[in-house]
Amino acid sequence: MKMENMKDRWKIAWVVSLLYIVYIFLGQIPQLEKSPLFDSMMVSLLLIIVYIVSSILLIGWKKSIELIALGWIVGYSMEFLSINTGIPFGTYYYTAALGPKLGPVPVFIPFLWSSLFFYAMEASSIFLAPFLMVSFDLSFDPRYSRELWHWTVPTQYFGDPISNFVGWFFVSFIIAFILYLTNFKVNVRGKAILPALVFYIMFGLDNTIDDVKVGLAEPGIISISVMAVIFLIMFLTRYIPYKKSLEFS
User: Fold this and answer.
1) Is the pLDDT of residue 220 over 60?
2) Global pTM?
């Protein structure tokens, strides 16, 4: 692929991704936050669409499909297993708020595994991504478990069991390990790039604001604090400039 074409694809991918960040922050405006355009289902569906567009531009359609298929299969399998056995997250059940289900799991939920993992991976590396995935979950699971699903096990962290976060790390690690075994390469091969880091921290900040609004300031602050530390570590130790990142594409 010609360098100029690579540059164009890189720029378009991250413009699309960061426009998604602008979109979710628009949803914080009081006059807009109650609109169906900014409800949790729409925000999640658009994240999946943005992931598909951006990942195709950055890593090609074959790898994009491989990742979303892997995330869906692993995510669905682990969700199904946990709902029925409690392993790895703990036992819970989904409400009807998330639309059609395949068995006990809403169809679109497993797509979020690959979407979130992609951005976590772009902001760090394949094997560091599970830590970033857990930092996401520290914020939004306490909030979403109030209405989108309900736990049937004792909880210790603002309405969530600790096993949930262990499970998030475990499932994310499975995805990472399979990607490693299949020699899956991302565009910067384990180096963080600034747009991905900005996406990561701003996505976390938006979730923190949502937490505060519903009376869950503590998990929101914990999550954004963890994410800020990770952001700084990634920027100081693994950041790679835009032009150099293209050499790895």
Assistant:
1) yes
2) 0.91
